Amino acid sequence: MTLTEVIEEIVTYSDTKQIKIRKTIQETLRRPDREIEQAWANEAERRLDEVENGEIETIPGERKS
Question: Which Pfam families would you find in this protein's record (predicted)?
Fold first, then answer.
């Protein structure tokens, strides 16, 4: 079945069924976003740990150029 055929069939479904399909598709599309958000959260934690443990020195904004 082609994508066009799938879409042609879906538009014949009830609104309730179409909404369920849309929600399912949206949930699968959000997964990478959650993974990216988690990766950034992990990175932020790692950087904070480095600062708190004295592993890196922070540079005040006034000195940065």
Answer: Unstab_antitox
Residue 63, class by beta-carbon neighbours within 10 Å (0-12 exposed, 13-18 middle, 19+ buried)? exposed
Secondary structure (H, E, C), the chain: CCHHHHHHHHCCCCHHHHHHHHHHHHHHHHHHHHHHHHHHHHHHHHHHHHHHCCCCCCCCCCCCC
The pLDDT confidence band at residue 64, using thresholds 50, 70 and 90, is low
More confident position, 27 or 11 = 11
**Token reading at 43:** 């990175």
Cβ count within 10 A of residue 36: 10
Please report, for residues 11, 34, 52, 56, the alpha-carbon distance to residue 39 in angstroms, rounded to integers and kept in the order given.
37, 8, 20, 21
